[in-house]
C-alpha cells in the first residue's frame, strides 16, 4: 500500500507526503504525530497501533483544527464523536471475521484434502448461529 500511496502522491502538485513507521509501538506513533504537527501538516492519516489511543491523537490535532483520518482500525464512535474533524475509513472487523470464517469453512467442506493434518474437526467450532471459529490449538469438541 505504501508504494501505491507514494506513487499517487508524486502525481499531485503541491503535495508533500510524510510517512512514518511506528514499528507497532503506540508511544512512537504518538511522538511521530507530535513531530508531524510541529511541521505544520494540513491533515493526518493514521493507522492506529492501538485503537484506544485515538483520543490521544485527536487531542493533539484538535487545538489546531487538523483533520484526522483513521484507517484500518476503528477508533470507536466515542472518539470520533469527540471531534468533528475525525473520520474513520475501514470495515467492520467483526463482519470481516465472520465472512472469512464462512469462506474457510465452505472451502474445507468442499475440499477435505485441504486439511493436511486431518484436524479440521478439532480446529473448527461450528456454533448454533452457523458461525465458525478457527482455533490455534486443537480443542476437544463434544457433540
TrEMBL record:
Domain named Periplasmic binding protein: residues: 1-111
Gene Ontology MF terms: carbohydrate binding
Organism: Rodentibacter pneumotropicus
Localization in the cell: Periplasm
Single biological process term from Gene Ontology: transmembrane transport
InterPro entries, A to Z: Bact_Solute-Bind_Prot2 (IPR050555), Peripla_BP_I (IPR028082), SBP_2_dom (IPR025997)
Protein name per the record: D-galactose-binding periplasmic protein
Entry keywords, A to Z: Signal, Sugar transport, Transport
Family assignment from sequence similarity: Belongs to the bacterial solute-binding protein 2 family.
Transmembrane segments: none
Taxonomy, superkingdom: Bacteria
